[in-house]
Amino acid sequence: MNCDILYLVIPCYNEQEVLPETARRLEAKLGGMIESGIVSPQSRVLFVDDGSRDATWELISRLHEKNPLFSGLKLSHNQGHQNALIAGLMQAKELCDMAVSLDADLQDDVEVIDRFVTEYYNGCDVIYGVRSSRAKDTVFKRTTAVGYYKFLKFMGVEIVENHADYRLMSRRALEALAQYDEVNLFLRGIVPLIGFKTTVVPYERNERFAGESKYPLKKMLAFAIDGITSFSVKPIRLITWIGVLIFGISGIALLWLLLLRLFGYTVAGWTTLMGSVWALGGIQLLSLGVIGEYIGKIYKETKHRPRFIVDQFLNRRE
Prior knowledge:
The chain folds into 2 domains: 218 residues, Spore Coat Polysaccharide Biosynthesis Protein SpsA, Chain A (Alpha-Beta Complex), CATH 3.90.550; 70 residues. Helix content is 49%, strand content 15%. It has 10 helices and 8 strands. The two termini are 21 Å apart. The mean pLDDT is 81.
């Protein structure tokens, strides 16, 4: 059997603390797969530097000089995780038969890459790495994560539960992904739209090896909003139904007040009046915010600015 070329694509942003250990483990893993004949000797580890402010690119450059197994892609500016990931995948697309995307923090279990490749050889174009358990998460994170996936599905977003961005994609799938040129990227929602044959590989997610998470609560909330507004118009429809509901309640309340007036009852109504004003004001502002989120996305899409600009690419094919 002819071995296919595998690229491991790893977005990096200020990862100088964890990068040496990540490189050591990936070198051992990919090197072992090459020696055993599972993948081609032309396979590579591609680190994507997303405009890091520390020594991340210097470390990637040194790794490349010492060992051709390591390649490096430097973006000219910080563009965010999803853009860095798509940059690496699109660069690898022309050089590989399959690509595995994973994070640099070693939370994704590299030992299951063999199973990804086995499923690829069995005819799957997309293999999702799915967490088998969330026992290591805090109660807050576990509860919010489960609730988020359920809410996405309720909103009509096709998504694989407990899957982040740890996946294998064949070259055919990468070429299909390249056709999605939207600026507002949410790859966890885009990839399932590609179709083709898919499967799932469960794995146990590890603790971060070193450094700090690049996804604090603020970024996670922004990412969650992107996931919803990029794939569903249900929030806008929900606003419409809220408006219909309030209109109905207002009609009933007006009828009730007229009846009270006819029968001679008088009500001060200060609390009811102020409560209604604040409630309606809050709903209006919330509605404007949701609509504004969609308008903002339309604004970005119409500008059609590049998602990333490549500064340097280091790659040796020996």
